[in-house]
Design goal:
The complex is a heterotrimer of chains A (308), B (374) and C (519).
Chain A: H1 2-6, H2 10-35, H3 43-61, H4 64-88, H5 93-116, E1 131-132, H6 142-146, E2 148-149, H7 151-169, H8 171-181, H9 183-188, H10 193-219, H11 231-241, H12 246-269, H13 274-278, H14 280-291
Antiparallel strand pairs in A: 1-2
Chain B: H1 2-29, H2 34-53, H3 58-70, H4 73-98, H5 106-123, H6 129-158, H7 162-182, H8 216-233, H9 235-245, H10 247-252, H11 257-284, H12 295-305, H13 310-334, H14 340-353, H15 355-372
Helix pairs in contact in B: 1-8, 2-14, 2-15, 3-4, 3-13, 4-8, 4-11, 4-12, 4-13, 5-6, 5-7, 5-11, 5-12, 6-7, 6-11, 8-9, 8-11, 8-13, 9-11, 12-13, 12-14
Chain C: E1 19-28, E2 31-41, E3 46-50, H1 57-64, E4 72-77, E5 80-82, H2 87-92, E6 95-98, H3 110-115, E7 121-122, E8 126-127, H4 129-143, H5 158-171, E9 176-180, H6 188-203, E10 207-212, H7 215-221, E11 224-229, E12 232-238, H8 244-252, E13 270-280, E14 286-296, E15 299-304, H9 311-319, E16 326-331, E17 334-335, H10 341-346, E18 349-352, H11 356-360, H12 367-371, E19 382-383, E20 387-388, H13 390-403, H14 420-432, E21 438-442, H15 450-465, E22 469-473, H16 477-483, E23 486-491, E24 494-499, H17 506-513
Parallel strand pairs in C: 3-10, 3-11, 6-9, 9-10, 15-22, 15-23, 18-21, 21-22
Antiparallel strand pairs in C: 1-2, 1-4, 4-5, 7-8, 11-12, 13-14, 13-16, 16-17, 19-20, 23-24
Helix pairs in contact in C: 14-15
Classes of the chains: A mainly alpha (308), B mainly alpha (374), C alpha/beta (519).
């Protein structure tokens, strides 16, 4: 029992914030997509591909920031693909997303075999630096939690705030919400429904790619097969728990980050077999989804919009 | 021994009749399946580009795949062996889809079914084979059914989106069976995380030596026929299809949506679980950690490519079984990473996801060719 | 009531028409919606576009507004040819449209809905809410249309929402306003308010196109009327030079009998008794606040009321699709208050739903499969445990196809391929052939042409004559009037009055529907 309490310390909460980051990126990505009326099941694949792209570019250029850029670009590209399939060609959103996920799995394994001769484990690359914010880190306790992190963590917080502003305080956000809720009304108002959806999907993919870059460059410094481990799906659950609002999604992501951080430390304690502990984040996700019964009503109408 | 041959003959006869019926249905549906065929071709085209760009010859790779899959009896046997579990998971996805649900957790249901069947297989000795095999299969089906029942109830009563819950349960299944086979049920003295062999009385016989093709393929084909029958000729299937097509009208017509989706997803899980059981009892004869290279996902692709009907599933599963078995030959001889098969699978899914895309591409390029040949 | 007639200016200036549509053709799979239509609207006039459902009025206007593309023809706005490829272009040309189903975004405020697409910006990127409020308020004042701008739009009553739609069009600079069936959701009093607003718009120099199938209204408000029938123009007349009968003949192509044969046997025992029914709607607000009424065998009880006063929730409660919080529903003295839909069907309830494509039919199912919906799990269609008897179902379907003259290539045709009137016949055939005790018919003639409408109404009367209790819920007051033996008025979740149609006037009903008490 004493050992269990040992793990509750500042480090746990710092790790919580760190591990919440990829999920938060994913959930914000999911948010933009869903607010515009498209379900993005492919977040997992976009994240994984982003993670891979980040490591690959970092490997060849030696710069982790270029890797991050690559992750953003390729995530956005996949978002556009998803958009083309679901918007332009009215394809099934779940099938398209699943296809992207499977593609990411296969493609990253294939390419890493070709580049590094090992299926899904790259060499170490230049990772992102860890920075400390001068005043912040000296605050007792809280400083330990938020004062020292890789930049992508701080960026995540900034983007969360930005997302709120964009969605609720700008015309663009107003249009996104209109397009998602009642595309006919937006169309009648002269808004280009398709363009708005594409844009949102590209943003969605870029954010997912960022989350992947964090995993491979900010958290570790390499790529491993399937390293996203379902986080793309957990991000969707976080989005739902957060009621499709940026701050809510962030809060939910912190919850899942906590579960992740806890699970790692519990494994180190060795009280239970690792496999059982590894199920914690997934069981939690299911519990969360079961718990938001009825209270989680999506804001959008996901039917494909067809013009006569 | 005489009795056994009689049973086999009867089984083969029934299977052949079933296949004929199914293919008659398929023939009727075939003209509408042109988009799927084109989707496959397009996928292979893009795959060829990927291969070429990474320094491999598409012709060599595809050629190796083809000869590996169909070149000799061994290859053909292995192709059908790989196709078998995919039939089960494809039917699982199909059945859930007909009710409007996306069961992407077939992989997890498959694993759970495999493990429960293995459990029954190793727990009993000396039972007659015609008792041991069925109860092991049923155990597998029930394991999978449980894994489908959980997300089903969560969806029906609490509205939890089944895409996420089934996916999460897949991970849980992976870890729980992994735990089982690394600790309590691990074969003593073995390096590998696996159970002991199942009792011989629980084995599904091999039907094409020296390949691994087992009687589970008969179970698969029977299941395909059964699925067709349920969907088209029973009230359960009627209600499932009604719910999938128009839940509001179904509700007004007195159908209970909740009961329907629970039934559909549970049966779906049972089908996938049965597939896992078949693999364990017929091919591996034990549960080995990681024995499934992703049959759940193959099933999804096959269900879509098969036009979401059981006969199409049978055909498409052969294609994907070929991808897997031929893929191994390809990797051995040309050193192309096996994952190209996954890439091809994903491309097929993407192209099939949007029939309009294929039609658009057909118009742009292929259509002229199509027209000029008539 | 006088109408201002513009006298021509003293010297000849040719003012081009606000709109000229020449030879417009638009085809959909299987039907020519617009067939070489010539349609001209002069500046500053109120022009009625009259025709029955399916005549092509909405399609024509959707082409004008850019929501549909035209197959052939040309459009001239103020004399200049225009290519309208989308609402954006139409708006730029000064065309605004108020649709039959309002194009509002429920979670946005009124002001946000109005400025959508034209949002005022501050500091380059942010939305300037204050400026939006100010400029919209200016508009409200100018056109004398009062609306609460900060309210979330879904909370407004329907008449108000329509005003928002009109404001939206005006805010975007519309000089030409298209109103598509604007009175279908209004009480008689609200219709008068709307007419006042339309006349005010004309005084401000706006041009109005008034789409409707209601003859009297079109005669009242319009200067000129163009009649469409089956996608073609029948003629254009001045309102002052024609009458209801002539218009009706133009609309339908034959003499229309407006009276309805209806001899009614004496009402017998009570079939449906509803007492103090209470229920909430989808947003947990009270929708039914103590509804009580009875329907007897051999009787049609019509429920009159503006949409949104609880009728939908009442039907859902009666059919088992919505939970009741208190009160009771008795069918032949059997309590079905909490019974699931399945049981109610078995107890003899039949339901002709408001939206036949959503609730009435499964569009991908064949005619035969739709015919057995509701009885599919009982003999004779279900045998043994779960087996479907396809032969029985086929025979039944063929029998009904003949009996109800259903125009379908075969019993295996998907419902999707049938016309609206035919689809409704399938629904009727299924619901009426179960020997029901109670029929709940909601908007049964919505969207149907005159022939189909007459058929549905006569069938309802037939069922009543055979002893059914019929509950008719219709937003079409004329229809309720013509068919009902008694009329109950529903307002804000209660039955506020039950009247004998022969002893009540339309204005009295209108007042009751609006919640006022007639004196």
């Amino acid at each position: 029992m004493v050992e269990f309490l040992d793990i509750i310390n500042v480090g746990l909460f710092a790790a919580t914030l760190r591990l919440a980051t990829p999920i938060a990126y994913g959930s914000l990505g999911g948010l933009f997509s869903e607010r515009a009326g498209i379900v993005n099941i492919g977040l997992e694949g976009m994240m994984l591909t982003g993670a891979f792209a980040g490591v690959t570019v970092s490997y060849f250029t030696g710069s982790s920031w270029l890797g991050v850029l690559a992750a953003i670009l390729i995530g956005g590209f996949l978002g556009l693909v998803h958009g083309l399939i679901t918007v332009r060609f009215a394809g099934d959103q779940i099938v398209s997303g699943t296809g992207i996920n499977i593609f990411a799995l296969g493609f990253t394994a294939y390419m890493s075999q070709i580049l590094w001769g090992s299926r899904g484990a790259s060499e170490s690359v230049q990772g992102l630096p860890i920075i400390s914010i001068p005043f912040l880190k000296d605050i007792p306790i809280v400083g330990g939690i938020i004062g020292t992190h890789t930049p992508l963590v701080y960026l995540m917080i900034v983007i969360t705030v930005l997302s709120y502003i964009v969605l609720f305080k700008t015309p663009f956000g107003l249009r996104i919400r209109a397009v998602g809720e009642r595309p006919e009304a937006a169309d009648t108002a002269g808004i280009n429904v398709f363009k708005t959806k594409y844009l949102c999907l590209i943003i969605s993919g870029m954010l997912a790619g960022l989350g992947g870059a964090f995993l491979s460059l900010g958290h570790l410094s390499l790529f491993a097969l399937g390293m996203t481990g379902g986080r793309g799906f957990i991000a969707l659950a976080a989005m739902i728990l957060g009621k499709w609002m940026p701050f809510g999604a962030f809060g939910a992501s912190v919850l899942f980050g906590f579960a992740d951080a806890l699970q790692m430390r519990l494994q180190a304690l060795g009280l239970l077999p690792p496999q059982i502990i590894l199920t914690i984040p997934y069981v939690l996700t299911i519990a969360v989804l079961a718990g938001v019964v009825g209270k989680a009503i999506p804001p959008s109408n996901y039917k494909p919009y067809v013009k006569e | 021994m005489q009795n056994l041959t009689e049973h086999w003959k009867a089984l083969i006869r029934t299977t052949r009749r079933l296949l004929q019926r199914l293919f008659a249905e398929l023939k009727a549906a075939l003209p509408k399946m042109l988009p799927q065929v084109i989707a496959i071709l397009l996928a292979f085209l893009v795959g060829a580009v990927v291969l070429a760009v990474t320094g491999y010859s598409p012709l060599d790779a595809y050629g190796a795949m083809l000869s590996g899959a169909f070149g000799d009896t061994f290859g053909i046997g292995q192709t059908f062996t790989q196709a078998t579990p995919i039939i089960f998971t494809a039917l699982a996805f199909l059945f859930a889809y007909k009710s409007g649900l996306f069961n992407i957790g077939a992989e997890g249901q498959f694993l759970v079914g495999a493990f429960t069947a293995a459990l029954v297989g190793i727990s009993f000795e000396g039972l007659p084979f015609f008792i041991h095999v069925p109860i092991a299969l049923i155990a597998g089906a029930m394991g999978g059914a449980l894994w489908g029942f959980i997300p089903a109830v969560l969806k029906a009563r609490l509205g939890a989106h089944e895409v996420i819950t089934t996916m999460m349960l897949s991970y849980v299944a992976l870890y729980v069976t992994g735990y089982m086979v690394n600790y309590p049920f691990k074969e003593p003295g073995s390096w590998v995380a696996q159970t002991v062999f199942i009792s011989p009385s629980a084995e599904l016989p091999r039907i094409l030596q020296p390949t691994q093709l087992s009687a589970s393929i008969f179970v698969a084909v029977l299941l395909a026929g059964l699925t067709h029958y349920i969907l088209q000729k029973t009230t359960i299937g009627y209600e499932v299809r009604a719910i999938g097509s128009n839940p509001s009208a179904a509700e007004s017509g007195g159908i209970s949506i909740k009961k329907g989706i629970v039934l559909a997803l549970t049966l779906s899980g049972a089908m996938a679980g049965l597939g896992g059981a078949g693999e364990v009892l017929g091919v591996h004869r034990r549960f080995i950690e990681g024995f499934s290279p992703g049959y759940g996902w193959d099933g999804l692709a096959v269900a879509l490519v098969g036009g979401l009907n059981p006969a199409g599933v049978l055909l498409a599963s052969v294609l994907f079984g070929a991808l897997r078995s031929g893929g191994m030959t390809m990797t051995r001889t040309t050193h192309v990473p096996l994952d190209i098969a996954t890439i091809l699978q994903a491309l097929v899914i993407l192209f099939v996801a949007a029939p309009k895309l294929v039609k658009y591409l057909m118009k742009k390029g292929g259509f002229k060719w199509w027209n000029s040949s008539t | 009531m006088t109408r201002k007639v513009k006298s021509p200016p003293p010297f000849f200036i040719h003012v081009p028409p606000a709109i000229e549509m020449r030879s417009i053709t638009k085809k959909f799979p299987g039907v020519v919606a617009n067939d070489r239509i010539d349609f001209t609207v002069e500046k500053g006039e109120i022009h009625g576009l009259l025709g029955e459902n399916g005549a092509g009025k909405t399609v024509l206007m959707n082409i004008l507004y850019g929501l549909y593309g035209l197959d052939e023809g040309q459009i001239f706005i103020d004399g200049k040819e225009a290519e309208i490829d989308g609402p954006r272009t139409a708006i730029k040309l000064g065309i605004g449209m108020v649709h039959q189903h309002f194009m509002i975004v429920p979670s946005l405020t009124v002001a946000e809905n109005i400025v959508l697409g034209n949002e005022p910006i501050m500091r380059k990127v942010l939305l300037d809410t204050n400026k939006a409020l100010k400029s919209v308020t200016e508009f409200c004042d100018r056109y004398k249309l009062e609306v609460d701008l900060k309210a979330p739009i879904h909370a407004l009553p329907v008449g108000m929402q329509q005003r928002v739609e009109i404001l939206k069009a005006l805010y975007r600079g519309a000089d030409i306003l298209i109103l598509d069936e604007p009175t279908s959701v209004l009480t008689p009093q609200e219709v008068q308010e709307l007419f006042k607003a339309i006349r005010a718009l004309k005084e401000q120099g706006k041009t109005v196109i008034f789409i409707s199938h209601k003859l009297q209204e079109v005669l009242t408000i319009c200067d000129r009327i163009t009649v469409l029938r089956r996608g073609r123009v029948v003629g254009t007349v001045k309102a002052g030079e024609t009458n209801v009968g002539e218009l009706a003949t133009m609309m339908v192509g034959r003499e229309v009998f407006s009276t309805f044969e209806k001899k009614r046997p004496e009402a017998k025992k009570t079939v449906l008794r509803v007492e103090n029914l209470e229920a909430v709607d989808d947003r947990n607000l009270p929708a039914l606040k103590g509804v009580s009424f009875e329907v007897c065998a051999f009787e049609i009880l019509g429920i009159a009321g503006v949409e949104g006063n609880g009728q939908t929730e009442l039907v859902e409660a009666l059919t088992g699709l919505r939970k009741v919080t208190s009160g009771s529903i008795l069918l032949n003295n059997i309590d079905i208050t909490r019974a699931p839909p399945h049981e109610r069907i078995q107890q003899g309830t039949s339901h002709v739903p408001e939206d036949r494509q959503k609730r009435g039919l499964i569009m991908d199912f064949s005619v035969m499969e739709n015919m057995i919906l509701g009885s599919h799990d009982r003999p004779p269609f279900a045998k043994g445990f779960v087996r479907l008897d396809i032969k029985e179902a086929s025979d039944y379907a063929n029998k009904l196809i003949e009996e109800f003259s259903i125009k379908t290539p075969s019993k295996d045709t998907p419902a999707r391929h049938l016309s609206g009137g035919t689809q409704q016949r399938v629904v009727l055939a299924r619901e009426f052939s179960r020997n029901p005790r109670l029929i709940i018919a909601c908007q049964p003639t919505r969207g149907l042409d005159v022939g189909a409408t007459e058929y549905v109404r006569s069938k309802l009367v037939d069922m009543r004559n055979e002893g059914c209790a019929v509950l008719l819920i219709s937003a079409d007051l004329d229809e309720t009037w013509a068919l009902s033996d008694r009329i109950a008025v529903m307002y804000e979740g209660r039955i506020v009055a039950v009247k004998d149609p022969e002893k009540t006037s339309e204005s009295e009903l209108g007042l009751l529907m609006a919640g006022a008490k007639p004196d």
